[in-house]
Structure formats: C-alpha cells, structure tokens
Design brief:
Chain lengths: 479, 479
C-alpha cells in the first residue's frame, strides 16, 4: 500500500547534490567532543536524506581509527601491530572497514588478504593451529630435504644436542614442512601442544638447521595462549640459550603474540616487561570492546539564515546552533591549545591576537589565548555545480596551515581533495594521524583519566547560544 | 617480492569445492556451547581456505540473531520491536547484516529502507527532530487545510479548549504539516521541546482535529529522551484526559520509545509498569553491547580417519575430536532435554531407548535419558559433484524430526535447502527461531543466571576423548 503520492517519488527521483556544499575536516584529523567534523549546506531535503548515510560512513570509521590509535599508544611506537579481526567483524564489509581504519589509526598490517590487496596494506599472518595438528608424524613429510640438506635430520640432531625433554614429533614434522615451503619466512605457531616444552624447542631445532645448514634467517614464533608476558620472556631465554651454544642470533627473532588482547592487556604486559615484538589483535580491536559504538550525530543548526538548536534536558545532547567554523589554536612549539568554534561570518581568530575563549555552557570556564598559529579545520570538500564558493571558502582553501611541518604537509595533502581532487593516499592519511597525535600533550592522550582537551566558543557565540536557549526553552511551572 | 612459487598460485587457481561436503544446522536453530553448527569434509586445503569466510559469515550473524532474541524475550511477545541501528553499525554492509539477523531473531521491522526493500522486511520509522526544528512558525505552512478542513484552526481550537499552558507553535506547525502529508500515518516525535508540556499537547490537538474533523485515525507518538517509563505513563494519561472530554479513543495510540535502549533497560521498564507499545532500538542492538563478539571457532577434528584435538590449558578452548553428529533429545511435550554429540558412525540415540549421557569433561556429571523424540541437528547442505552421499546422509535427510509440529515443519523447511534446493524464506526462518525458543524451558532463557542447557557426549565418545587426551598431552616435569 503506497503511503505517499506518486509525485513525491518523482520528486525524489529528480533530486541531486548539485545545490550542496559540504565542509569537512581532512580524514584522520583528531577531533574532540562537540566539534563539528562536517557541515552541509543545501536544500533541507537533500541534507536530510544524507543524514544516515553520513553517520553510517563516519561513526564506525572514526571509532575504529580511534580504537586503533589507542592500541598504538598502549603498545608504543616500536611494536608491530597486526589487525586479525576478519572473523569477528560485522560481515565481510564490516571487516574491510575494520582493516582500513585500523591501518589509518596506526596498525602496520592485516591478516585480511582481500583488504590488503584492495588497500595496499601489507598482508601479515602466521600458519594455523590446524597446520600443526594436520601433521601426525615424520611420515607426513614428502621429503626430509630442503635443497641439498636433510632438514629433518639436522633438526633432530639439534634436538638431541640440546637435550630437549619431550617435544612433539608431529609438531616438528609440521615445522619442517613449513620451513621447506617458506625457508625465508619461517615463523612458527608454538602453542599447539605446549609452548615451552614442545613448541619453542621444535622451533629452535628447525631454526638452527635453517641457519647453520641452509643459510636462511628464521623469522620467529607466535604465542596464542597462556601467560603471554611470562611465555615471551621464557621463549627469549630459550633462544638465547641456543645462541650461547651455537653462536647463532636466534634471540633477534620476532615474538608475535595474540589471544584476546585489548588495550588493558597491552598496558598490563608493559608493566611485566614482556618480550613481545608484534601483536596480532582481532576481536577487541574490530568490535571496539571498550565502547562498541560512537555516537556522532547530525543536527539541523540553521535554516533560512535562522539558528536552530536541539534542546535537551541532558546537556551532553544539546547542540550548538548556527553554521559554524572551527579553528585549532596552536601555542609554542605548535602544540594545540584548544579548538575554537566560531559562528560562520564572525571575526576569526588570528595569529598573535589575544582572544577570550569560553566553555560553551559553563560560564566559569574561560581563558585568554594568543595563538602562534591558527589552523582552520573545516574545508570545502564538495561543491555542487549549482552552489557558490564564498570568499571565506576561497580564503580557507588557501589558508590551511598546520602545526609541525609534517602535520602541515599532511594537512595540505588532506586539503587537496577539496573541490573533488583525488583524496590523499591511505599512507598519507596514516602519517597525518600519527603527526596529529605526536603534537598532542601527553596528558590528553593518557589512557586513564586524560586531561580533557578544551573545546571553546567565542564570547560572541557563547552569548548567542545562551540568549537563544533562554528564548526557546519555556520555564517549567511547578505545581 | 613473491613469497611462494608460481606453481602454488596455479594450484590455488584450479581449486574448487567439488570434493566438499558441508553439514550444517538449519539457519535459526538454537545452538549451545560446544555443539558443532557445521561440519566440513573435504580436501584439507579447501576446508582450510573456507575457515575465515565461514567464521565471518556465522559469528556476527549468530551474535546478532541471539541478541535480537534476547531483546524479544525481555520486551515480551506483544511489543513491537524496530531495528534502528543503521547509523551505528560497521558500515553499510554491517548494517544490512544487522537488519537481517535482528529480524530473524524476532524484531518486527527496520528503519533501514535498503534492508527492508532487499529482504521484504517492513520499513518502519518516524520523522526526525530536524523535521520539527525546521519549522519556525505557522507561516511555514503552505496551507492551513487538510482537504476541506482548516486543520490548523481546528488544532488551535482544541488547544484552547484543553487549556494547554505553553506548547510550542513551531512544533504544532510541524505536526500539522506532517498530518497534512500523512493523515493516515500520523505519528509524532514529541520530545523536541518538552514532551509533556509541549509535544503531547500538540500531538493531541492535531490528533483530535484529524479524528473529529477529518475522520482519520492518528497512529501515535514517539518518545526519544528522558524517563521513558514515567513519560509513557503520563503520555497515556494525557491521551485519556482528551478521550474523556471528547469521547475519542486516542488512548489506543501507539507509544514508541527509543534512546539507548538495551536489554537491561527493557527489564527495568517492565518493573515500572511502562506504557510503551513499540521500541526502536539501534546502537545497543547492532553493536551487541553486552558482548560485542561471538567466539565461534573452526577446528581440524579428524584427518585421514584419525582424530585431531586442540589441546589447551583452558578447558573452554579444548575441542572435541573426530567427525561428530549431533542430536537434540526431546522429553515429554517435546521439550528439549539435552543435545547429544555422537562420533560419526557410532550408535545413534533412538526414541524410547534409555541412554547414558555424559558431560564431555566432568566425569561426575552424567544422566540417563529416554528420549520421546530425536532430532538430528546436522544435515547435508552442500554436496560437491565429486563427493559422495553416505547411507547416513540419506537417512538424515529423511529423518529430520522436530519437537512441536511447528518446529518440525520449520525444521523440515530448513532441511529442504539440503542438496542445493532454495533456502527457506526469512519469514520461515524467523518463525522457526520463535518456535525453537518457545519449546525451551524458561529457566534456560532467563536473562540472569540461566540454568545451563546440557550438552552431552555418549559414553563411547567420552572415553575416546579422554584416552586421546592422555596419550597426546605430556605430563609436565616439575623441577
């Protein structure tokens, strides 16, 4: 049963975005609560139809990149982080988004081969437990040899010399088979039977044979269960013992760890002086365990030049009315001091000019700022054929200036997509994210109880909001 | 840099699923921990390549349907449940999965129009806050009329007669505009300014005019903020007041509620005798807030007729070795008593035959069961052209029998997809889920501390597992 007239559907069919202007922050910009990440100007109905599409496109993407960045901060800059989330994401497309935005947030690779191929990310992973358990004995090997060397014989020789007590033969068969297929990429999953009693000894035997008999450099091991801090330290000790005996450098092998790792686990491992080089993180990364949804909203703030305001009893749900611009004000050494929201058309902040900045709702919270640099955050990213560029638009397109040189360059790279030029590469955006985070004060990035970053409004906008509020919200009548 | 030989890629390119057999439970079957939902038989490499694809396809789907079913149980059978999660799901495809599986789990409609169109689900939603805030005064109305009636004038007349204190004119303008466009679908979002002081009075004025002057039946209101239990009760009171004065039946209007609803909120609302008829649930439904990931795994259990077992220090991670079949044993009134895992080829359970059923790992947990019906859960769903049907396969295809008649029919519907016949419709699967849940004992479905449903193994399989364990796991040497 039709619930609207035919004319309405014809009207919908004729709609396009030619009257639309979209302002956005460059992808990867660090954003704070209340700061608009996007501003649309155009016919009400077109803007309204885009609401859910844009929220769907931005919410999970931003959440995922943020979560990945938090994992990166927790792991530290020297660790390798691999995204292993394909099997737990919201279907295949959810998994592709997870791979993309975890990479942008600071991950180094993904086990999702389709994502890696599509996005130019490095595909990374290890063999499966089933590869080990599919082997039963040395008889499963089609050959003992790697090139001219009896790889199995050599490995068994080292096993004897090292006097390892009870490693599994089926596991050794699997490791030999893997080393035969990938002698240059020998990375073994060592926890199928017993990490320290079987997996590590078997790895070391094959690694010694690869190194000393065949001249290859083994890559490392992966731990996927148990006490990862303890096991990684013990694993490193076993590698050093072998090095001491044979003059090898197995201790330089990579130790990969996985198994329900989350941000808290990364911090805890750090406290225990773990020996892990690479983390494979899946479930808790892609489902954003700590906060599975990001609540960005899309609100009508101005219509026909008149401000509109979403009123709510909950102050966190009140939106700031009117078309707005946002500027990041930088201090000495280009450290961001605060983000300033300005009503479009108001006087903009300027370098060297002292300015009162106010909390949008709390009259007691205010400060003066004299910025050393002013970075406009919203730039024109879509200009419909029937929409017009204002002088302010043109000024912004020219004015985007960043903090550090790299942030500036990355910012410019972000800006070059304005007016439909091609978007920056994922690598450029990833560097931009890292540069942005590097500029922030450490206390803003702290995992627990971070100092809130200031998001302010001009004094002019402050009064504008409060006058509007008082005029729109009736005073309740208690009876 | 290539990391494998060309021959390997050629080999991959020639692979297909012609040697593969897949056994699966009908979609929508209620499953319990440790019970295999799928069993694959075929070449190791083909089975291995399917691991992540199948996990990706099953994990989120099952989690979502389960979450939806929990919401349905919490809300009760009489409430309407609408999925509102598109903006918070993992991208557009994640959202489509969310819509599909929340429908299968017991939801009635979705606000995702694309999903509704693609899947034959009823699209459901309300107008936005911005529709209200886009209106500023009565001057925004292109006409006061609906047909021959001065709708605005009539509404203003009721406002005066009801002596409502301070409702917003801009909100009334929006409601009149909406009623003019959709007189038969008038459902108003009433919390833009103040639910009880403005939204409800404005709704009632327009609803009275629609009913008494125009002969339409208004649908209802939506609450999207505040204390939903309190507001719904007060809203119903206001509707009754109007009915008392005008002899209308506005109290029969639907009250829709949304705003961060989760399972706990549904239970809490119930305790407060709320007056809500329909729930719109988004974020906490589609991101599965209570448990954002389901950890189904895919394990090698048998190779060349020999059992393989995933050993782990954590008992919850130990998998049961060997190819297995699963039977649901039903008791009186066809209530499921337990699921019994049987090694493929072992003696199967039979109706009327007393049988010892054991916990797979705890020797003290065991019971005798004499089933009144035996429902095989795994059926052949894919048979490659090069794979063969066994006698057992043929018997299963014929033997699928359910608990109640409806579960049986739904089960058969599920079975008809075997051997590549078309899958059941979403509506049939949704009914199958409901029928399955209706058969379960209430204490198994309880939200808090449910009684665990028994998943057992035969005595034969019990000893088989334990003998294999003891032979595979070395005894640690403490020193």
């Amino acid at each position: 049963m039709p619930t609207a007239q035919d004319g309405f559907f014809e009207y919908l069919a004729g709609l396009d975005c030619s009257q639309l202007k979209v302002y956005g922050q460059p992808e990867g910009t660090v954003v704070f609560p209340r700061v608009p990440v996007m501003r649309l100007e155009g016919p009400l109905l077109v803007c309204q139809l885009l609401e859910t599409t844009l929220l769907n496109a931005c919410n999970y993407a931003s959440l995922m990149a943020t979560n990945a960045a938090r994992f990166r901060i927790a792991a530290g800059p020297d660790k390798t982080l691999l995204e292993f989330g394909l099997r737990r994401a919201q279907g295949p497309d959810g998994a592709m988004s997870a791979s993309r935005y975890s990479y942008l947030g600071g991950f180094d690779g993904t086990s999702n081969v389709a994502a890696a191929a599509a996005m130019g990310i490095v595909p990374r992973g290890t063999h499966a437990h089933s590869f080990v358990s599919a082997h039963e004995s040395f008889a499963d090997l089609s050959t003992r040899m790697l090139g001219e060397v009896d790889l199995l014989g050599a490995a068994l020789g080292y096993r004897k010399e090292m006097a390892y007590a009870s490693p599994s033969d089926s596991e050794l068969a699997a490791f030999v088979a893997f080393a035969q297929a990938f002698p240059e990429r020998f990375l073994a999953l060592v926890d199928t039977y017993d990490t320290l009693a079987s997996g590590m000894p078997n790895f070391i035997c094959v690694a010694l044979a690869l190194t000393l008999q065949c001249g290859y450099k083994p890559l490392g091991v992966r731990l996927d269960s148990g006490d990862l801090a303890y096991l990684s330290k013990e694993a490193r000790k076993l590698l050093k013992e072998a090095d001491a005996k044979y003059g090898t450098q197995l201790a330089a092998c990579t130790i990969v760890a996985s198994n329900s790792i989350n941000e808290a686990v990364l911090h805890a491992l750090d406290d225990q002086a773990h020996e892990i080089d690479t983390f494979g993180i899946g479930t808790n990364l892609v489902t954003c365990q700590a906060q599975p949804a990001l609540g960005m909203v899309y609100k009508l703030v101005e219509i026909k030049g008149k401000p509109r305001m979403k009123i709510s009893q909950e102050i966190s749900k009140v939106t700031i009315p009117a078309a707005k611009e946002v500027f990041r004000l930088l201090g000495s050494e280009h450290v961001p001091l605060l983000d300033l929201i300005v009503r479009a058309g108001e006087t903009r902040p300027a370098v060297g000019k002292r300015m009162l900045c106010r909390h949008p709702f709390d009259e007691k919270k205010r400060c003066f700022v004299t910025p050393t640099a002013v970075l406009p955050l919203l730039g024109l990213v879509w200009l419909g054929a029937g929409a017009k560029v204002s002088e302010a638009d043109a000024a912004d397109a020219a004015a985007c200036s960043g903090g550090s040189t790299s942030a500036l360059q990355a910012g410019q790279a972000g800006r070059e997509q304005d007016l439909r030029s091609p978007p920056p590469t994922m690598q450029a955006t990833r560097s931009y994210v890292a540069a942005q985070l590097a500029l922030l004060r450490e206390d803003h990035l702290r995992a627990v109880n971070p100092t809130p970053y200031k998001v302010s409004v001009t004094s002019e906008l402050y009064h504008y909001i409060h006058d509007l509020w008082l005029s729109e919200v009736p005073i309740p009548e208690l009876a």
